[in-house]
Design goal:
It is a single chain. By secondary structure, the chain is of the alpha/beta class. It has two domains: about 260 residues, Glycogen Phosphorylase B (Rossmann fold, 3-Layer(aba) Sandwich), CATH 3.40.50.2000; about 180 residues, Glycogen Phosphorylase B (Rossmann fold), CATH 3.40.50.2000. It contains 19 helices and 18 strands. A nine-stranded mixed sheet has the order 3-4-5-2-1-6-7-11-12, with helices on both faces. It has a six-stranded parallel sheet with strand order 15-14-13-16-17-18, sandwiched between helices. A hairpin with a 2-residue loop joins β4 and β5. α10 packs across α13 and α11 crosses α17. The radius of gyration is 23 Å and the shape is globular. The termini are close together. Bound molecules: adenosine-5'-diphosphate.
């Protein structure tokens, strides 16, 4: 039995802003069969505290970055949780990362330093007699854990990069407040261009690094994708692994999804498509109903989709988008609904995302970079053909409908490169050609539905990594 403490800033179903939460929420159950006992350490945001049933206080802090705090042990959402209850850090309304002005909470460095500090304390002293063998942190919010751990008697450490774009920077004037060793404020330590980088702290010192696809692991070592940390990634390439995310198929399973009209075979899909069109006010159409479920940010390449959209509409296709994010993209997509074949829902809506996945013919993911990506995996599972950029996890999970792949009957979707509006136009055209050939289209859908997108392989890979880092 290997004991692992997973340390993260979000965790589905309790609190989620993106794919990180899905992974953190699904991994403990997925990996239990591999002889790994995983507990999850989370900040006590209001949504987390409300979900806790009976909780037991297992540790107390008089002063955790500016106020008193306790650590609670509880079960919720099928997870074995340790939760940091610290009103001054986490009990505030709104987004877990952003204040009402849409900017990072000014005390984010302290908020997630606290998460890292408590993780390091549990890693050394245990939690009520439970001592983890491995501390597994996720993204920059867990990075400083590697600095807080003592040099001697450290547990083994793993850091997973879900997105290297977020560095967790803080001004150098915070070094003392954050309880960091000033002697390690160097290029070999946690210093990054004169600032404290929580992510770099983790990248430099974790025993093993992982990211969420093999292609993204390779991309991270290149300047175009490394976001200024490609040199660090090259220096640590020996400990870097790519392990693909899976999807939680207790939540994403078209055969038993309570949020849709469930279907075992493709025969059941048209009813969902008709219902989605009716819900969104879209007319019947000859071409494919393409869906997007996404944060609206530069990363996701949806500005390219706006440019290429006329190609889809000219071919009789339709677009249904669910997302929120940058105001300029929200406004541009709202404006695109001038065309009756475009429907846009600005906001975050878990239930609608299921109905879109079940009702769509195709799912579009034109990301400029994508560490793994989950929505193309949902698409595969639901017979909703993915059209994706050839990058990161999108490259690793979709088999492009090239003439060779079509001839061999293995294609699952359409990929395009380079990630430009022109290449996307060509790909949308190809998608419409494929859709117009019902036998081919059905083959793509069926291949996708058979493609393994669950956790089995990846859970084994994480378990093997823990054994390796423990020298077992
Ligand atoms: P990222 O983590 O970069 O946002 P992923 O594809 O890895 O991208 O994960 C995004 C997750 O968030 C998916 O589970 C997706 O369904 C969900 N999601 C994104 N935007 C929305 C939205 N507006 N409404 C509902 N779910 C959303």
């Amino acid at each position: 039995m290997i004991r692992v403490l997973s340390v993260a800033s979000e965790c589905a179903p309790l609190v989620k802003t993106g794919g990180l939460a899905d992974v953190v929420g699904a991994l403990p159950a997925a990996i239990a069969a591999n002889g790994v006992e995983m507990r999850t350490l989370l900040p006590g945001y209001p949504a987390v505290l409300e979900a806790l049933g009976k909780a037991e206080t297992i540790a107390e802090y008089d002063d955790l970055f500016g106020g008193s705090a306790t650590v609670l042990a509880a079960k919720a959402g099928g997870l074995d949780l340790l939760v940091i209850k610290a009103a001054h850090l986490y009990e505030r309304p709104g987004s877990i990362y952003l204040g009402p002005d849409g900017k990072d909470w000014p005390d984010n460095p302290e908020r997630f330093a606290a998460l890292s500090k408590v993780a390091s304390d549990i890693g050394t002293a245990g939690a009520d007699g439970w001592v983890p063998d491995v501390l597994h942190g996720h993204d920059w919010q867990a990075g400083l854990m590697m600095e807080y751990l003592p040099d001697d008697g450290r547990p083994a450490t793993v850091l997973t990069i879900h997105n290297i774009a977020f560095h967790g920077l803080a001004g150098a004037e915070k070094i003392a407040d954050l309880g960091l060793d000033p002697l390690r404020f160097t290029p070999d330590g946690y210093e990054y261009w004169g600032k404290v980088s929580a992510l770099k702290a983790g990248l430099m010192r974790a025993d093993r690094l992982t990211t969420v696809s093999k292609t993204y692991a390779a991309e991270l070592m290149r300047p175009e994708f490394g976001m200024g940390l490609d040199g660090v990634m090259r220096a640590r390439r020996d400990v870097l692994r790519g392990i693909l995310n899976g999807i939680d198929d207790t939540i994403w399973n078209p055969e038993a999804d309570p949020l849709i009209t469930p279907y075992k075979t493709l025969k059941g899909k048209p009813a969902n498509t008709a219902a989605l069109r009716a819900e969104l006010g879209l007319p019947a159409a000859e071409g494919p109903l393409c869906v997007v479920v996404s944060r609206l940010t530069e990363q996701k390449g949806l500005d390219l989709l706006l440019q290429a959209l006329p190609t889809l509409l000219e071919r009789g296709g339709q677009l249904a988008l669910l997302g929120s994010g940058e105001p300029s993209l929200e406004a541009a997509f709202r404006a695109a609904t001038r065309d009756p074949n475009v429907a846009v829902h600005i906001g975050y809506d878990e239930a609608l995302s299921h109905r879109m996945m079940a009702g769509g013919d195709a799912i579009l993911v034109p990301s400029r970079f994508e560490p793994c990506g989950l929505t193309q995996l949902y698409g595969l599972r639901y017979g909703t053909v993915p059209l994706v950029a050839l990058t990161g996890g999108l490259a690793d999970t979709v088999i492009n409908a090239s003439p060779a792949a079509l001839a061999r009957g293995v294609a699952t979707g359409v990929q395009f490169a380079p990630v430009t509006a022109d290449a996307l136009r060509v790909a949308l055209d190809d998608l419409c050609d494929l859709h117009a050939d019902p036998a081919r289209w059905r083959q793509l859908q069926k291949n996708g539905m058979k493609h393994p997108v669950g956790w089995d392989q990846s859970a084994s890979a994480y378990a093997a990594l823990y054994s390796e880092v423990l020298g077992r």
